[in-house]
Amino acid sequence: MKAATVNSLRGEYDPQRHAGLYGARRVKAMSAVLLSLMLSILDYAIANVALPSIAQDLHAPSSRAIWVVNAYQLANLSCLLPLAAMGARFGFARMSQFGILLFLIASVACALSHTLLELTLARALQGVGGACIMSVNIALVRFIYPHEELGRGIALNGLFIGIGVALGPSLGSLVLSVADWPWIFWINLPLAVAAMILAHLALPETPRNNVAIDTIGSLLTVASFSLCGVGLDSLMHADMIPGIGLTGGGIISWVLLLRYQRGRREPTVPVDLLARRPFLLACMVGFMGFVSSNLYIVAMPFTLASAFHRGPSMIGLLIAPWAVGVATMSFVVGRFADRFPAAVLSSIGMGITAFGFMLLFMLNMDASNLDIAWRTLLAGMGFGLFQPPNNRAIMVAAPAGREGGASGMLSVARLAGQTLGALLVAGLFTVFPHPAFICLGCAMVVSIVGCALSASRKYLVD
């Protein structure tokens, strides 16, 4: 029997064959990945629920308290690609462990904050820790699962993202019902310690490249995302002069970055991967999917409150079917993601999501809770069907050795889509007096465009 086969039977990782892990070793490694993922997803979702309590306790207006959320997301998005490149240099497992440690330290800083500025800075640090985890998350899955089972691993990853999103608001409400807001950060400590121990013991060693860290490229990447993010946020809130200045600075940073990275072996922004049509299309489809989902997720609470006159507790219950649908279908689609192309599965999923949004858009004002819930569930199930096959398409389109860049771009597509979706909601709420159903209509249109773009892969790539 060949040595590689023996290694596989023993549950050991074979770097030459990229055969993945087997048996108990795979279970332990994937548990470490999923626990660290849950840590970052849960905390992001929980913080949203605590914003009113934080604003009241720290004597801050709601418009400024929102930066407790924005600081995390912007730091996360800005640092994903530089940290993915560093993960490829120092090892994906090490990057994940460093992220967990940084997340733990930042959680303590958040819990001990006494001013909004302190909390915002601590949340930004927490976002960097989350970026360390998210930038290499899917790259680790690629080394834990063999190629022919990669779809199952990515689907399991999507399932836990759905669970984290679903549990976050409920867990946050439960914590706030018995304790003050700092405890939403204190509860991270046991989770982070457990994730740290499991990651140290179970995550596989992965190949490392010998490319030097591109400091200038990394700084330009952070500046490009940060300036554009803050600038667009200012524009959407009608702060025109700072918005134009910051957005303009971000565009200049992007031009400088792309010119600087032209011809580099492994650029921080993986323009070489984006030159591959399958990779580019999968990233664009993922981006469109998350723009549409956040147009729904951010605007729907306001729609339920203003148009359907539901109270806060009922709003949470009526939004929950979205996360249930995403989690359920993410689990089911894992059995098919390795057998059917993303051009089929993801297109069907986005089509179902668009149909669900259309049904919600067409609801009468006297619609019952059941009418709202099953339409929301349908849209969520479509999104759960769309996401894992598309994520798999991103990873398999990247050549061996570029797992870090592919994993980073996957997360960038998700976070950039979520950020733009939220900014569009802010802009629509600024321009229109009653924008609730306009946001749902926009979510439907973006989903249809994403569906068409996904289906085009069958003809443009194959």
TrEMBL record:
Q: How does it sit in the membrane?
A: Multi-pass membrane protein
Q: Which residues form the Major facilitator superfamily (MFS) profile domain?
A: 29-459
Pfam families (UniProt xref): MFS_1
Q: Which CDD domains match?
A: MFS_MMR_MDR_like (cd17321)
- Subcellular localization, as worded in the UniProt entry: Cell membrane
Q: What transmembrane ranges does the database entry give?
A: 32-54, 66-86, 98-117, 123-145, 154-177, 183-203, 215-234, 240-258, 279-302, 314-333, 340-360, 372-388, 409-429, 435-455
Question: Which UniProt keyword terms apply here?
Answer: Cell membrane, Membrane, Transmembrane, Transmembrane helix, Transport
Q: Annotated Gene Ontology MF terms?
A: transmembrane transporter activity
- One Gene Ontology CC term in the entry: plasma membrane
Could you tell me what this protein is called?
Multidrug MFS transporter
